[in-house]
Amino acid sequence: MVQKVYVTYNDVHKLCKESAQKILDEFKPELIIAIGGGGYIPARILRSFLKQPNGKNISIQAIGLSLYENLGTGEPEETPGTEVVRLQWLDFR
């Protein structure tokens, strides 16, 4: 059985803050890709910490993926699936 781990907003905020300087030192991102199902809020927090004085905000693009499915067992909880399904994807054309 998969064990659920609960993470608070403060946990996410702290991890984003701790990661920002290392990201800026090793990589100069121009784009953040947020994955739906939990990635939008960390992406937005991280963008705040990555913004440089007098610099522009880093763009955030969103994609949607699904890896969970209801197996029809009568259980209300979804279970991990076997295939990642693209619900929303990036198109830079």
UniProtKB/TrEMBL annotation:
One cellular component term from this protein's GO annotations in UniProt: cytoplasm
InterPro entries: PRTase-like (IPR029057)
Top-level taxon: Eukaryota
GO MF annotation list: hypoxanthine phosphoribosyltransferase activity
Keywords noted in UniProt: Glycosyltransferase, Transferase
Gene Ontology biological process terms from the UniProt entry: GMP salvage; hypoxanthine metabolic process; IMP salvage; XMP salvage
Protein name according to UniProt: Hypoxanthine-guanine phosphoribosyltransferase
Origin species: Arthrobotrys musiformis
Taxonomic path: Eukaryota, Fungi, Dikarya, Ascomycota, Pezizomycotina
Name of the gene this protein is made from: HPT1
